[in-house]
Amino acid sequence: MEKMKYEEALGRLEKIVAQIEDPQTAVGDIPAKVKEAAALLTYCRRMLKDSEESIGKILEEQ
Fold it and tell me: Would 1 be classed as within a structural domain?
């Protein structure tokens, strides 16, 4: 996941959420999907925080 772009991670997260919401998804599959979704969410949040910090540093230099 570390090499995944933000847009890729977000897209995967959206697909997982759709699968979890789908009534055809087996109940036994949901815990693994939730675990992957949580990891992707953490990854996306970290990427956003890192970008925000980088932008803040750039603006401070101006």
Answer: no
| Structural domain range at position 43 | 6-61
pTM of the model: 0.85
11 within a domain of the structure (yes/no): yes
Indicate the length of the chain as a whole number: 62
Q: CA 55, CA 48: separation in Å to the nearest integer?
A: 11
- The answer to whether 10 and 44 are in contact (CB under 8 A) is yes
Which residues, other chains included, contact 44 with Cβ-Cβ below 8 Å and sequence gap of 6+?
A: 6, 9, 10, 13
Number of domains making up the chain: 1
Whole-number pLDDT of residue 62: 84
pLDDT digits over 20-40, tens only?
A: 999 999 999 999 999 999 999
